[in-house]
Each structure stands twice: as structure tokens, then as C-alpha cells.
Amino acid sequence: MKKSIVESSGNIFVDLGYSQDEAAILQMRADLMADLRKFIKTRKLTQAAAAKILGVSQSRVSDLITGKWEKFSLEMLITLVTKAGMHVKLMIAA
User: Is residue 60 part of a domain?
Assistant: First the structure.
């Protein structure tokens, strides 16, 4: 069986069939979750310690670490990133 390779659009969510608008939001959520996981990993935080810093329960940190993106709104992720001491900057592309 011959498999074809399709070049990515640059946004996996567009490639999966989401609309441009929805894909942009999903990509932002994925990026923020990755930043938060990196924050936890680089500081070698336990889930309990990360929960205290972020002001959420340990189970919410577990959801974050295991990539349960559907459980986090964009607004919630921005709040968590801010509590982690990071800054969110929105870049508008024409």
C-alpha cells in the first residue's frame, strides 16, 4: 500500500478539519498548556506544589499534565500562565 505525505498547514487543528477560527483557538490552548507543562517540569514541581502556585486542585494539574485540553478554556489557561509568572502576548497576523 502506498502512503502519501501531505504537507502541514502549520496548524494541526486545521489539518484535522477544524475551521480556521476554531483551529486558532485550539492552537493557542495547546501552546499555553505546553508552556505550563514546561513550567512544571523545568522547576521539578510536584503536582501538589504546582497546584498551590497555580491556585487550583492537584487533579486540575493532573488534567493539565496529561493533556486533557477539553477541560481548559482559553481564559483559564491564560489565568494559569499568569499565576505561573509568565506573560501572554497576542500577536495579530493579517
Answer: yes
